[in-house]
Here is the input.
Amino acid sequence: MIHHLALTLEQRPEVLERVLRVVRHRGFRICTMNMTEQDDKFLQLHMAVDSDRAVELLSRQLDKLLDVTQCVVTTPSAMSQTVSA
Amino acid sequence: MEQGQTISGSQAVIEVLAAHGVDTVFGYPGGAIMPIYDAIYGSSVQHLLCRHEQGAAFAAVGYARASGKVGVCFATSGPGATNLVTGLADAMMDSVPVVAITGQVSTKVIGTDAFQEMDVLGMSLSCTKHSFMVTSREELIPTLYRAFEIAASGRPGPVLVDIPKDIQVGQLEYKTPLQAVATEAAVDSAAIAAANELIRQAKQPMLYAGGGVGMAGAVTELRDFIARTGMPSVCTLKALGAVEPSTAGYLGMLGMHGNQAANHAVQECDLLVVVGARFDDRVTGKLNTFAPHAKVVHLDIDAAEQGKLRQPQVALTGELQQLLPQLGEALNIAPWQQHVAQLAEQYAWNYDRPGELIYAPRMLNQLAHKLPQDSVVSCDVGQHQMWVAQHMWFRKPEDHLSSAGFGTMGFGLPAAIGAQISRPDAKVVAVSGDGSFMMNVQELTTIKRRKLPVKILLIDNQRLGMVKQWQQLFFEERYSETNLSDNPDFVTLASAFDIPGRTITQSAEVEGALDEMLNAPGAYLLHVRIDETFNVWPLVPPGAANSDMIEDLEA
Here is the structure.
């Protein structure tokens, strides 16, 4: 299933490597990707990723990266039956 | 040090360590980190030379795990840094707060394949919680402060700071950064209420406690929760010590080599309250058969653990110290409590073994009863590690160091060294096997160097025992590369490092030999020969459900 993710990243030389490593390791394949400089501090990254796994398994790992300031899934969730705090 | 003073980058590194209460660093010098070694020379921060960077990393891990403080290790560029990797990966899997500082070649030659150059930042991405390469003098102090904060906060983990040599020698103004005050996230009261409702309705609830309990400093809150609810409990390998062993309804470790009672109770339960645990495959067995009738309430600091392997009905993400007191009340579950007590009795360990050979489970149980209040057991990986988990008991999680998630052979000896440094008054015992011991045996020199009173209990079956056990059970007894009968003479080996010791082979010798080891004034190695046919029981075969444990086939 294809999922779309929108990320805001801090400008660090290695930030893209960090994100791509997590995407690969957690079992997702990048279909399309577009990165633009927001300003001298932040980058905007849009990705479409493909996997049989629930997209939350990826988005929550990306959210944990300290250089990822925001990670939004723009496709619907399969893990919505949990009550969360 | 006064603000605004001009110092070198290397001096700044030592100042930041001192400001964070770091009393000892573990490491090994080399070309690209020489300015930092020059700055630590004669400073207030102690340094313990380990004889391999992997040993230094594990000593930092042991220091951290036994004390709750951040462990720090140093290594030079290139091979120094690559040798740290296994220790960092171990800290990553077990969420241990460690700061690793590596020297790097000078900024202007990075990317030219300079001598001992390696892309350490790139290498660190998969084995650290976060990592930095410092690119300017001004960044150095704020980056180091940030490294300590990241290592210890949230779900702890290792942080690497790579510092090029020119930044180490460059002059900068000493200025400590302003530190952000952590704000406590509010917990959703609806989720707390939903969790409490599930707990109230449950007829057969089980508590499944993980390593997060100890890391969060929530042992007291967990014990209060158990006392309040009367809920039966099990622990993961890393949680051992979190539940007081004599607690009613406590069934010990669950999982592949867990107690049968623990696994059966979890399989039968109708509610699993998971606290700081992550449904590891060694815990669950075949995942879709694990606790098949249970609803799940999952408490964890890390949102990424919620639903990673098992979908919870209620997910509570936050500080365990804050969450646990809001959950549970006195439960009316007497029939279940009685059933659990009956399971505990039915599957209690039996230490009766006829014959004169040394039965390692019984010896370890004897050791547990002999250890003083302030003690640490540091394990290696393999059969002896599981026997320690099954047959010893611990007063708190910090008293049991075991490479749980990563399962790194060679962990035990250097981690014991770190533990002895952070808890100098504790009785520290490294329990190792003949395979694991040889993996970081060079650290005997580190014990000698600092005259550390670390006791080594070396359980020797002349085999790579756990692999041999699997070959016996699942690979048609084809013993590929697991015969270690050409081991060195371990007592003679220890004596070369001024460490006394003795070998025992008979059951009747155990009691006296354990006393002799524990009462030795300094380091001591007790070499225990056991029969290679002894295996770890019970066992959940790979791919099986936890309800299908197999017991000792020979007993």
In short: The first strand of chain A starts at residue 2 and ends at 10.
